[in-house]
Please model this.
Amino acid sequence: MNSTDAPSSFLTPKSFASDNWGGMHPEVLAALTAANHGHAAAYGGDPWTARFAEVTKELFGAEAEAYPVFNGTGANVLALQAALPRWGAVICARTAHINFDETGAPEKTGGLKLLPVDAPNGKITPELAARETWGYGSEHRAQPLAISIAQVTETGTCYTPEEIRALADFAHEHGMVLHIDGSRISNAAAHLGVSLAAITSEAGADLLSLGGTKNGLLGAEAVILLRPDAAQGMKFLRKINLQLPSKMRFVSAQLLALYEGELWRRSAAHTNAMAARLARGIETLAAQDPSRGLRILFPVESNAVFVQLPPEVAAHAQQRFTFGAWPGGADQYRLMCAFDTTEEEVDALLEALAGA
Model:
């Protein structure tokens, strides 16, 4: 087999299972290829990493500091571990990725106690956070010293700048920091029609896990310190946590391709539009025949559509497209759009759902 040709057995139809299933955006692949010439200093001493540090300040403010890493779980653990002492605890939604999907990494690797709360539509409010904001000074309780929110949430919804500001003010009043898991933050900014700063630094957040992999990168994320004194020892903890790329230019080149211009917004806006098209189609099918049992479960504010499907409808559609059940309840499924999802593919999925 020629190493440059993928055999047909490797190729799969377009998937609605996750935006992680997508490939690399062609512009990112081109940037990665351009970086692959000659030698460059390792461990961040290269021009791509230096330029990404400048872009970070342009996007998030003069105080912002960037630390490229390999993946989102690593970014979350690193950010929270740097922000909290060993006795610190993190308030998060029960559905949060750090609580539900990261195999205990914040607790096992980061040494952090998570304090999950039930959050409608995946969104924490100051009132919900207050349920775990107690026990300060007691040696019998891990100290609540951070709130972590996901933007967008695990149910596909978005926090407004005002909602983030309210949480940041509440956190700071109680001596806590506000961390944002921004694996899909581009989708949130595109949906809200605001800048990245408007829903992070300008809203009072302290730390950000900046996503890239779900928006067309090969495997590149970054921890952004929006307020440098909110965390300590980042340069050491990144190495300890196995998140320091030796050939960092290839991570930074991807991040630059996404964030130096408007690619992040163009791609996110497209994925959001495909999800909105899919949701409208499902709502039309449901209205045409209520007995079909189709129902949108959460507001569609990003590239995710959560839907209730009868098992036979899901099974029929899964003969053509890959997507999976969602553990939120019986007959619930998550349909995800990616940067390369097309209108024709969305319409074909709708045809498959209707054909059942």
User: Anything to note?
Assistant: The two ends are 40 Å apart (CA to CA). The chain has a mean pLDDT of 94. DSSP finds 13 helices and eleven strands in the chain.
